[in-house]
Specification:
Distance between the termini: 13 Å
Oligomer: single chain
Largest sheet: 7 strands, mixed
CATH architecture: 3-Layer(bba) Sandwich
Strand content: 15-25%
Number of domains: 1
Strand order of the largest sheet: 6-5-14-15-16-13-17
Structural class: alpha/beta
CATH topology: FAD/NAD(P)-binding domain
CATH class: Alpha Beta
Number of helices: 13
Shape: globular
């Protein structure tokens, strides 16, 4: 790698901050541009599975997440009324891999990443509109409300509605999954919510997640099948969520009831068709900008972290920027394509509504050999490593 490389990272979400951390670790001078007017505490929560923790470890990065969140100790699949269907072989896999999985609030993860960056060069209120390659091979990034920036490489980490992706690939439709998702974080104490607990409850066209994120807080999410026109404009409020989960396990009703209405976020569940070409010249994409996926596997943030580590590794080893960026994209394409497809397949299975198919789904979960569950989970939870990355 040529010394003294510079990078513009568009987006200051988990993907953008991960990219900045990893690139700086290999000596790249990074400047982050964010469309929002400031860096605010992020809402709800997420999981960083063993694969993401192991990826960070490849670059010697320890964000102290186990102390900030909750290490997963138990993962149960339950019926809507709370009856145990299956205990997943999750912690055994993490222990075998030598890296924990952590559930953590987005604001705590954001704070950990900003602490690691130690006051990074950051410009807010800067909405990217596109880019142009300069005659000298560098890239100029243009903003609607800020002077242009120039760098040796551009990383589009600006999320689901990425302007950098649109400039690369043109406008693309979102792909609706057929359900709404409600999410919230709230202080919660309940016998079911043991330290490190994840509980997924399955119903008819509905799901609920109850997750310990440490420090007396729980993250919950609920889904319900509905048309895109309704899910994109949900107006039912907290009362509508309570109606949706009437008759479910007592802990579900209790946590929703305790959640302030203003804390409940409703979002349509969407992804996009997989994009095979992530970059051109000194430009590439990362995280949700490259491969937005449904939340069923809890791997959106993890894939962004993996991307960032592989990107930094590839750029640091390549003879020039473009070779490094194409090597990064080649290394990540198959794994992220599979994760997008698997997330949608799991989502479709878990959201089954018709009675006969639902009975078959639940029977499968109760009887599928543990070996099969372990093999499938391990494929997601094991970071492929950097040994084979060009």
């Amino acid at each position: 790698m040529n010394p003294g490389l510079s990078a513009v990272v568009v987006g200051s979400g988990i993907g953008g901050l991960s990219a900045a951390i990893a690139l700086r670790r290999v000596g790249v001078d990074v400047h982050i541009y964010e469309r929002a007017s400031g860096i605010r505490p992020a809402g709800t929560a997420l999981s960083l599975m063993s694969n993401a923790i192991a990826a960070l470890d490849e670059l010697g990065i320890d964000l102290g997440l186990a102390e900030r969140g909750a290490v997963v100790r138990r993962f149960d699949i339950r019926t809507r009324r709370g009856r145990l269907m299956r205990r997943m072989p999750f912690t055994e896999i993490c222990d075998d891999l030598g890296a924990p999985s952590v559930c953590i609030s987005r604001s705590d993860l954001q704070a950990a990443m900003l602490d690691e960056l130690r006051d990074p060069p950051l410009t807010t209120g800067a909405t990217a509109t596109g880019f142009e390659r300069e005659p000298d091979g560098r890239v100029r990034v243009d903003f609607a409300d800020h002077p242009s920036a120039r760098a040796d490489l551009l990383v589009g980490a600006d999320g689901f509605g990425s302007r950098i992706r649109e400039a690369l690939a043109g406008p693309e439709p979102a792909r609706d999954s057929g359900y709404v998702c409600w999410l919230a974080v709230v202080p919660f104490d309940h016998p079911r919510l043991t330290p490190g607990y994840i509980g997924h409850y399955w119903g008819a066209g509905q799901r609920f997640g109850l997750i310990d994120i440490g420090h007396g807080r729980a993250y919950w999410w609920g889904t319900r099948n509905m048309p895109a026109t309704e899910s994109a404009n949900w107006t039912g409020g907290k009362a509508g969520v309570l109606r949706a989960f009437d008759g479910w396990a007592p802990e579900i009703r209790e946590i929703v009831d305790r959640t302030p209405e203003s804390s409940i976020i409703a979002v349509p569940s969407r992804d996009r068709a997989f994009l095979e070409r992530w970059g051109s010249g000194p430009v590439t994409l990362l995280g949700d900008a490259a491969h937005p996926m449904l939340t069923s596997l809890g791997q959106g943030a993890g894939m962004a972290v993996e991307d960032a580590v592989v990107l930094a590794h590839s750029v640091s080893r390549a003879p020039d920027v473009e070779t490094g960026l194409r090597a990064y994209e080649d290394a990540r394409r198959d794994r992220t394509r599979a994760m997008v497809a698997n997330s949608r397949a799991v989502s479709d299975m878990e959201q089954i509504e018709r009675p006969v198919r639902r009975v078959l789904r639940d029977l499968y979960m109760r009887t599928v050999p543990r070996r099969v569950l372990t093999e499938r989970a391990r494929a997601a939870l094991a970071f492929p490593g950097l040994a084979g990355v060009a």
